[in-house]
Specification:
Elements: H1 6-12, H2 14-25, H3 29-48, E1 54-59, H4 64-80, E2 87-99, E3 105-113, H5 116-125, E4 140-144, H6 145-151, E5 166-171, E6 178-181, E7 189-193, H7 201-217, E8 221-224, H8 226-236, H9 238-268, H10 271-279, H11 284-322, H12 333-359
Parallel strand pairs: 3-6, 4-5
Antiparallel strand pairs: 1-7, 1-8, 2-3, 2-7, 4-6
């Protein structure tokens, strides 16, 4: 090991370096913050990021304009449908509420079919969207496991104290999904399905094109596809991203001050060492590169330590929250991006501050 290398200082100052690494590992708290903030949207993404398998339309409210446009669309819709999606079902949709991991109320839609036959047709035309072994009779409902756990619903019990619906199936599916059957003649949604259950990319693109065409021509009609619904969800929860930005900024400021103070204290104790380096011919640039390499090596170790700690925290939280219907599904790009930004800002600033000291020739003081 070369005396001037970064590892020489690390080897000779194990405890001090360990403290610095632990302090730097706290930067990865941004990762947990990002996972936490992104979780409400993630519960929708896990089942809405799939290809469009159907399209739903209904009046947007009960105004005369909405009713008139919906009736006009009913007349025009058959001529607008793509060749591979000519099946139209009439259904209802109701909101099912649940609590997200950030402890505020969210809602998801439950499709309500007018007969068991319509529900079976929906299953056959949407591929594997609903498990094949799920069958519903009148006033029965099927929920995904997470949604049932979140609401505390059990098989055979009413969905709510005053509900006429019985939970008959819990589906082994991600996200928050629900389906029900209720015999009624009053419906307010049109559901467009594939002719043969072939839910390929062409169907996805054609349904997306049809949805946007309907939105353009009939602004008072509400249109639902996976693509549009996910866009709507992202728009509604966009304020949470501002919360995360505030978390990253706060963490970066606090840790920058704290970590830089620790590095400054360690630096001040090494002025004699740097004076010797200067005396034997090392340039300011070489001394700075040594300091920068030490910071980067310690930060690399801190990132590894932080990743291990974060993985452990996420595994524990998943076990604790699963019974309440909450789950961190996968690594969030928001969490990764926020952590990387905090890392770059803090570490780059610390290195630049050290460069400033080198340029002022403070390293040569006895």
């Amino acid at each position: 090991m070369r005396p001037f290398s970064a590892f020489t200082y690390i080897r000779n100052n194990k405890w001090r370096v360990l403290v610095l690494i632990m302090m730097m590992s706290f930067i990865t708290v941004c990762f947990i913050g990002g996972m936490y903030v992104d979780n409400p949207g993630e519960t929708f993404r896990v089942h809405l990021e799939d290809r469009n398998r159907y399209l739903c339309v209904s009046p947007r409210g009960s105004s005369n304009d909405a009713i008139d446009e919906y009736r006009a669309l009913q007349e025009e819709l058959p001529s607008m449908l793509p060749p591979e999606a000519q099946e139209i079902l009439y259904i209802n949709r109701r909101y099912i509420d649940y609590d997200c991991i950030m402890l505020f109320n969210c809602t998801t839609d439950c499709m309500m079919f007018t007969s068991s036959e319509d529900f079976e047709l929906f299953k056959s035309r949407t591929g594997d969207l609903v498990p094949e072994d799920v069958h519903l009779k009148d006033h029965e409902m099927a929920m995904s496991e997470l949604l049932a756990n979140n609401r505390g619903n059990k098989i055979g019990a009413p969905i709510a104290a005053d509900s006429k619906y019985i939970l008959s199936n819990i589906m082994d599916k991600k996200g928050m999904e629900a389906y029900a059957v209720v015999e009624t003649t009053a419906t307010n949604w049109m559901l467009i399905l594939s002719n043969d259950g072939n839910c390929d990319m062409k169907l996805h693109e054609d349904l997306d094109h049809l949805a946007r065409e309907i939105v353009r021509k009939y602004p008072h009609v509400y249109v639902v596809t996976n693509t549009l619904e996910l866009e709507d969800v992202e728009q509604q929860i966009s304020f949470m991203y501002y919360i995360f930005v505030a978390i990253v900024v706060l963490v970066a400021i606090v840790l920058l001050i704290t970590i830089n103070a620790a590095f400054t204290a360690a630096y001040d104790k090494r002025k004699h060492e740097f004076a010797i380096y200067k005396a034997i011919g090392f340039t300011k640039g070489q001394i700075f590169r040594k300091i920068a390499s030490e910071v980067l090596v310690m930060n690399g170790a801190a990132v590894v330590l932080g990743a291990i700690l974060n993985a452990g925290v996420i595994l524990v939280l998943n076990q604790v929250f699963w019974s309440a219907g909450h789950h961190f599904y996968r690594v969030s790009s928001l969490a990764v991006g926020g952590t990387v930004i905090a890392e770059v800002v803090i570490i780059a600033t610390i290195i630049l501050l050290n460069w400033h000291k080198v340029r002022k020739c403070e390293v040569t003081e006895e």
